[in-house]
Design goal:
The structure holds two protein chains of two kinds.
Chain A lengths: L1 H36 L3 H31 L7 H28 L8 H27 L4 H29 L5 H36 L1
Chain B lengths: L6 H24 L5 H19 L1 H10 L5 H20 L6 H16 L5 H36 L3 H32 L11 E2 L4 E2 L1 H33 L3 H17 L3 H9 L12 H16 L6 H31 L25 H47 L1
Antiparallel strand pairs in B: 1-2
Helix pairs in contact in B: 1-2, 1-4, 1-7, 1-8, 1-9, 2-7, 2-8, 3-7, 4-5, 4-12, 5-7, 5-12, 6-9, 6-11, 7-8, 7-9, 9-11
The chains are: A mainly alpha, B mainly alpha.
């Protein structure tokens, strides 16, 4: 029994640590975008390295959690869904890492007029992902509260969509001075940033269904 | 030859283990919270303990219904019950070993011209109805309590699940113990009056004749659990677990409480000491009690969740099972007596329930054989346990090794 309790405690700690990593990753993403927009590339590099470490940690933890759940037959009824949830949440930090990498490789030229809009976009997208984490934690402790926590995720996701649409409209309709390749490149970067909130929404949908199942 | 007569009881015990153990551990195994091997070992040990420690009370009640006074009669009774249980299970009809054995005893009474004690019979039949009802009554407050604790404590899902897992093991063991205590009378009760074995000294405990039979019966149930209950556990378990693990735990707990109440002579005496009516020590059907418990959960969640067809099936079982066994037993007794010329018992002229059987089988030779059988099975059981432990240990070590290798390679 003592061994079993230790396993359970370790597993809970690992799950918490996994969410901590993703949460921090999203936070660093926001700062990273800010650094890039303010042309502070040294800071951006530092943030990129941090995200890299966090993503690698999250991957390891995810594997460890799945492994322990299967080996010790923990949560047999919800294991599949919990594993899927961890997968979806891990996708977010993967996307954060790949977005920052795309930016540093492609070095998109963001017009000064769009700096604030891009900041808002990154903020809203990161917010959606950030709000997902407390809901995911609540699934394990207070599943009754998950759905109300998820409302914020949906709100920020729709905000992100709106901001992204506005920026795209501005780029393609108002900024005649930009050539088409530049516009397409900006759209590509916008989609990358927007993708984080989309992934948060996918995870939120799964989490909502999982919460109902646990509560009933 | 004498011990051959016990085989029908052992067959009945085997089918009881195969079918009814699922009521104790079905939920845990069906939900994959406990491995079948672990469940089978715990259930087997608990059933044997229950049978030896607390099995006497219900056997005495069955003895009052009909004190079978010939080993041929006991054999036929157990055989008729076992065949009925087996056939009804095969055709997926609701069946209870308890009801089968009661029907068989009535059949024996009719054949030998003995009078069936109507007071005992009505006490037994009353418990068939009160068992499931009590089960439902126990389930509702227990379930409410668990839900309240779960919501109020805000326990982590994984911690809660680990509590439920531990709870399912403890409750399952208790249910298996109660099953052994309550239902051993069905398996060996009819043989008790016909056997008079020498006491068996096991060092820590001395087993009298009845307890030796209970030990053998308990072992037969254990063999039924180990060899045949896996599929039943997985099927029945999945049905119960659909409720959710905490409801399943409550259902098993309520069921074992009911079985315990109807087999605890200490509790019965305690109530009598308080001036309250005694609880009749009667074997009740664990399957039917568990149906009552599940209905209790249904009532708590709203009447629309109740499967009324199940209730109907239980009621049919109350009548059909004893009736079929009674007829089958009567016919079998006729055949055994007139064709094989076996003494199946006779009319008891002047006997009180306490005075015991009229003709019994004694003899140090039978006792010695029984001793060897019991020691042999016990030794075999211990060897199997050690083998299982070593197997598990080997698996664990291999897993640890592969884990270490995996993380090393990943780095």
């Amino acid at each position: 029994m003592a061994v079993f309790t230790r396993t359970t405690k370790n597993l809970i700690l690992n799950i918490d640590e996994f969410f901590d990593n993703v949460e921090l990753g999203v936070l660093v993403f926001r700062e990273g975008i800010k650094s890039y927009l303010y042309k502070n590339l040294d800071d951006f590099d530092r943030h990129l390295q941090k995200v890299d470490t966090l993503e690698s940690n999250a991957d390891k933890l995810q594997r460890l959690i799945e492994n322990e759940m299967i080996t010790h037959s923990i949560l047999p009824q919800h294991r599949e869904e919990v594993t899927k949830l961890l997968d979806e949440v891990d996708e977010i930090i993967d996307s954060v890492k790949s977005s920052l990498n795309e930016i540093i490789i492609e070095m998109p030229e963001i017009p000064d007029a769009l700096t604030n809009s891009f900041l808002c976009l990154a903020e809203a997208s990161a917010n959606a992902a950030e709000e997902l984490i407390p809901a995911a934690r609540a699934y394990f402790k207070a599943p009754y509260t998950v759905r109300e926590k998820l409302l914020k995720v949906y709100y920020f996701e729709s905000e992100t969509d709106k901001i992204s649409r506005d920026i795209k409209k501005q780029v393609f309709q108002d900024m005649k001075e930009l050539d088409l390749a530049h516009k397409a490149h900006l759209r590509y970067i916008i989609q990358h940033i927007e993708n984080i909130s989309d992934l948060a929404q996918t995870a939120a949908d799964l989490l909502a269904a999982m919460a109902i199942k646990v509560v009933i | 030859m004498i011990l051959f007569f016990l085989t029908s009881g052992l067959f009945l015990g085997w089918s009881l283990g195969a079918n009814d153990a699922s009521n104790a551990f079905g939920s845990a195994v069906g939900s994959k919270m406990v491995s079948f091997r672990k469940a089978a070992i715990i259930a087997s040990v608990a059933v044997i303990l229950g049978a030896i420690i607390q099995g006497a009370g219900t056997s005495q009640t069955l003895g009052k219904l009909g004190a079978v006074n010939a080993i041929g009669g006991s054999f036929t009774l157990a055989l008729a019950s076992a065949i009925t249980v087996y056939m009804m299970t095969k055709f997926s009809l609701p069946v209870s070993t308890t009801q089968a054995i009661v029907g068989a005893i009535i059949g024996w009474n009719l054949f030998t011209g003995n009078k069936t004690d109507s007071a005992t019979l009505s006490a037994i039949v009353a418990t068939w109805v009160t068992g499931p009802v009590l089960g439902a009554l126990f389930t509702i407050p227990l379930f409410m309590l668990v839900i309240k604790v779960k919501v109020a404590a805000k326990i982590h899902l994984i911690t809660f699940e680990s509590y439920i897992r531990t709870g399912l093991i403890i409750v399952g063991a208790f249910a298996a113990y109660s099953l052994g205590a309550n239902n051993i009378a069905n398996v060996m009760g009819v043989f008790v009056p016909a056997f008079n074995l020498d006491d068996l000294d096991l060092g820590i405990i001395t087993l009298n004749s009845a307890r030796q039979l209970f030990l053998l019966g308990g072992m037969a149930i254990a063999v039924g659990i180990i060899t045949y209950s896996k599929r039943v556990m997985e099927t029945v378990g999945a049905n119960i677990v659909e409720l959710n693990p905490e409801a399943a735990m409550v259902v098993v707990l309520a069921q074992s409480l009911v079985l315990f109440i109807f087999s605890s002579s200490a509790l019965s005496s305690f109530l009598a000491g308080l001036g309250l009516p005694r609880i009749p020590l009667v074997p009740v059907s664990s399957s039917q009690v568990i149906i009552g418990c599940v209905i209790g959960i249904g009532l708590y969640k709203g009447a629309r969740n109740i499967n009324f067809r199940l209730l109907g099936e239980v009621a049919i079982g109350w009548i059909a099972t004893p009736l079929i066994t009674c007829i089958l037993c009567y016919l079998s007794l006729f055949i055994f007596k007139n064709i094989f010329n076996i003494n199946v018992g006779s009319k008891i002229t002047a006997v009180t329930p306490e005075s015991g059987p009229i003709s019994v089988i004694a003899g140090s030779e039978t006792s010695a054989i029984m001793r060897y059988i019991l020691f042999g099975i016990l030794a075999g059981g211990i060897i199997l346990l050690v083998f299982y432990y070593l197997l598990e240990r080997k698996k664990r070590l291999e897993l640890q090794k592969s884990e270490t290798k995996f993380w090393k390679n990943l780095k």
